[in-house]
Amino acid sequence: MEVLTGNHFERTKRYARALFFLALLATVIGFMTVSAIFIYAKVLGPPPLVVSKSSLFVADDGHIFGATNPQGEIRYWIPLDDISDHVQHATISIEDRNFYDHNGFDLKRIAGAALADIKAMSMVQGASTITQQYARNLYLGHDKTWKRKLAEAFYAVRLEMSYSKEEILEGYLNTIYYGHGAYGIQAASQYYFGKNAERLTLAEAAMLSGIPKGPSHYSPTDNFEKAKKRQELILRSMVENGYITKEQADLAAKEELTLVGQHPHKQNGFAPYFQDIVRSELVNKLKISEETIALGGLTVYTTIDSNLQQIAEEVINYNMSDQSAMQVGFVAMDPATGYVKALVGGRDYVKSSYNRAYQALRQPGSTIKPLLYYAAIERGFTPSTTMKSEVTTFKYDEGRAEYTPHNFNNHYANEEITLAQALALSDNVFAVKTHLFLGEEVLVDTAKKFGISSKMDLVPSLALGTSGVRVVEMVNAYSMFANGGKKIEPTFIKKVVNHKGEVLYEKEQEDTQVLDHDLAFVMSHLLRGMFDPKLNDYARVTGSSIINEMTRPYAGKSGSTDTDSWMIGFSPGLTAGVWTGYDDNQEITLTAEKLYAKNIWIDFMEKALEKEPVKTFVPTKGVVGVYVDPDNGKLATESCPVSRLTYFKAGTEPTTYCIEHIEHRIEENPEPKTEPKEQPDGKDRPWYKKLFDWI
């Protein structure tokens, strides 16, 4: 065992004295630093109680159509005495239980959070007091950095030195965001429960106090289950802090809440459904916090065109009867970029904020057929491919099931028709035959290629649009025909700039060819067929009702099921799609209501483009245009009563001439029995016999 010598003892004493003086020095320096901070804070005086800069939504034409400023927000400032005690106690319990005991920040909570951050090597846990949160909302951004945390603490000290706890709590409760545009407890109380904040019950107060942690997650109108669990957590914390008894908490947890979900005085702003999508994408896609959106002074440059949006809303209101309960989803898009230029998600945002253009899954009916026929042409079909249109029963699922599709009004050609006619007349039998011939998985894979992410069922009826899709997806798909097969996606935000002018996000344009360039043009020309009476056969082309209103070339396709009515189409520079139907899937029976989608679409396209020069669909270099007999798809002759210019990918155009009408003319006008003697060069030989010889 080592014996402690005198030298060792003296050395230990020196170390102890040194440590003591170092600790004393550190204490003095720390005291002086803290004193200096408090003196500096006192010299600066009370910080102004102002809200951070507003965020602006800017249209494609530079028009500011939305803002998160007081004029655009739902915000009411009320004194603390007009705020229910339950709200105050619930907020303090869940956000800052030591609010009345600290001087701006909770050292114990900070130490715990710092330890967690050090272990994770990043800012993973917060320990902000109510004062710090109020300071952050007033003066700072919401980035998780040590610099911001230190600034937040300093502002908290200044607030605590200059204002009472009651003033700080009042300011916090009047500025915090509760979701759905409600800033402050009064706006939140009126939106969620239709009453003033002073009348909130314990159950209602606990529910509202849980929302600021994540308004998109804990809103009771959006996610009641999550909101309810957080309410129960807050009630338990109020019991632990002595504000209520366990019996009161249990009664409050059982109380049935009546949610209103509507601002009592809110005006229906410009393009409200579009604004909802922009806010959602800022949070979910760009990962920008809701607080930053609300108070961070952002400038959000969007894709919406103010003029086109106004036209869309006007034509919808004009064409749909006030007496009809049908709803609408509408999207207009620039096919070159995917920029959404106009969007309407319903007939009245105040009555229903459900976005039928962006959220609703509805059966697309025959509007899915162009995707099917693109896949068919890609695999060897041509516009002249023929199949018989007749009542047909198909067996599937290895013969265990049967399916019999029917045409509109049960009309059939009962003979061969071309693919071009089948699309223009919307023949269902032709579509199902094509679908099953290709294989059911082909249409599913093709839909994904066109950017459709909605789930599709592998069944024969998929060719007739029985799997639900979104309007915005279908408009995006048709835009790929219009742009020659380039990959695009529905785009709502072009750029986001913060209050310092720094670009936080900017959309980058892709240049990826997804479809065959030539086949995309062939399909675009085929889609003009619904407006071409030359393709009339056993029925009229499906665009007959609006042909007389057209002043320029369009391509498109209508679609209908018992419960859904669609029209999607495009010019070379603009695509638009319309869905109309009932929210409850009620059957559409009135003829006038069945025409809403087409009428809205043509009115929009004509008004949107009336000041634009007429543009035609320019053939690509790899296609060939020939005149064919629309009934059989063969090369037309002078004897054919109707001939139609039709485009094919080079090398797939028909080579056989139509002779049906030649023979018919011979029978009607027989040649003389004695024909003139032919000259050696054959010039006097009848032209049709020359044709027979050539064939």
UniProtKB/TrEMBL annotation:
Residues 65-238 form the Glycosyl transferase family domain. The keyword Repressor does not apply. Residues 665-687 are annotated as: Disordered. It catalyses: [GlcNAc-(1->4)-Mur2Ac(oyl-L-Ala-gamma-D-Glu-L-Lys-D-Ala-D-Ala)](n)-di-trans,octa-cis-undecaprenyl diphosphate + beta-D-GlcNAc-(1->4)-Mur2Ac(oyl-L-Ala-gamma-D-Glu-L-Lys-D-Ala-D-Ala)-di-trans,octa-cis-undecaprenyl diphosphate = [GlcNAc-(1->4)-Mur2Ac(oyl-L-Ala-gamma-D-Glu-L-Lys-D-Ala-D-Ala)](n+1)-di-trans,octa-cis-undecaprenyl diphosphate + di-trans,octa-cis-undecaprenyl diphosphate + H(+); Preferential cleavage: (Ac)2-L-Lys-D-Ala-|-D-Ala. Also transpeptidation of peptidyl-alanyl moieties that are N-acyl substituents of D-alanine. The chain crosses the membrane at residues 18-41. It comes from the Bacteria. Gene3D superfamilies: Biosynthetic peptidoglycan transglycosylase-like, DD-peptidase/beta-lactamase superfamily. InterPro entries: Beta-lactam/transpept-like, Glyco_trans_51, Glycosyltr_51/Transpeptidase, Lysozyme-like_dom_sf, PBP_transglycosylase, PCN-bd_Tpept. It holds the Pfam family Transgly. PANTHER family: BINDING PROTEIN TRANSPEPTIDASE, PUTATIVE-RELATED, PENICILLIN-BINDING PROTEIN 1B. This is PBP1A family penicillin-binding protein. It comes from Bacillus carboniphilus.
